[in-house]
């Protein structure tokens, strides 16, 4: 009897652990930008090939929050620190050649857009852009970026709708190829979602 009681306690314990694992798994993925189109979306829609597993889950670029003080390491910012998504930090498209870019104009109003598959309680959204003269020949690092966001949208712990647009103004003084880094910071976990979009000013 005692053994049986211990066993069933152990089974309950395992079930609890299982439920916790499932619930954190459920919170583990879930948004990307499609305006301007992000690298993970270009992989998912087949515009860029040889991307690896990110093509099946563009919403899963989830890494530690706190960028730029914390967050993914330099060289892994665009892949959220996930080695299985390393293709996203490649300075060139995994299929060869340059990442396709969206044409934008400095000083112009722009509507940035996120798509969510899980609507997490949200601290804020921040948008960063690379500096003039950034190093385009390596995986994106903090030294390439203006680490002051050009757009911050506080969200006060609310949950976003499945599609969310933000109106902002593109920074001035940039020309040629740049990367916009969008960061979605979750309020009730230690994580954030990262999306890099290539643009031409
Ligand atoms: Cu999630």
TrEMBL record:
Signal sequence segment: 1-29
Localization terms from the record: Secreted
GO cellular component, one term: extracellular region
Heme is among the record's keywords: no
Keyword field contains Chaperone: no
Chief place where the protein resides: secreted
Alphabetized Pfam families for the sequence: LPMO_10
UniProt domain Chitin-binding type-4: residue ranges: 30-199
Entry keyword set: Secreted, Signal
Xref: PANTHER family: CHITIN-BINDING TYPE-4 DOMAIN-CONTAINING PROTEIN, GLCNAC-BINDING PROTEIN A
Record-given protein name: Chitin-binding protein
Biological source species: Streptomyces brasiliensis
């Amino acid at each position: 009897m005692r053994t049986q009681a211990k066993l069933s306690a152990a089974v309950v314990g395992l079930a609890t652990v299982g439920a916790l694992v499932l619930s954190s798994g459920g919170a583990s993925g879930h948004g990307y930008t499609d305006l301007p189109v992000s690298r993970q979306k270009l992989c998912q829609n087949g515009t860029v090939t040889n991307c690896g597993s990110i093509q099946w889950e563009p919403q899963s670029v989830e890494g530690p929050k706190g960028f730029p003080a914390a967050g993914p390491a330099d060289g892994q910012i665009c892949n959220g620190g996930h080695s299985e998504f390393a293709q996203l930090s490649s300075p060139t498209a995994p299929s060869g050649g340059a990442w396709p870019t969206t044409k934008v104009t400095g000083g112009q109003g722009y509507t940035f857009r996120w798509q969510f598959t899980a609507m997490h309680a949200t601290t804020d959204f921040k948008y960063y852009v690379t500096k003039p003269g950034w190093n385009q020949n390596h995986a994106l690092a903090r030294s390439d970026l203006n680490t002051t966001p050009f757009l911050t949208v506080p969200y006060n712990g609310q949950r976003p709708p499945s599609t969310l647009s933000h109106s902002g103004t593109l920074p001035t003084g940039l020309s040629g190829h740049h990367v916009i880094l969008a960061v979605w910071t979750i309020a009730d976990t230690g994580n954030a979602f990262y999306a890099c979009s290539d643009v031409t000013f």
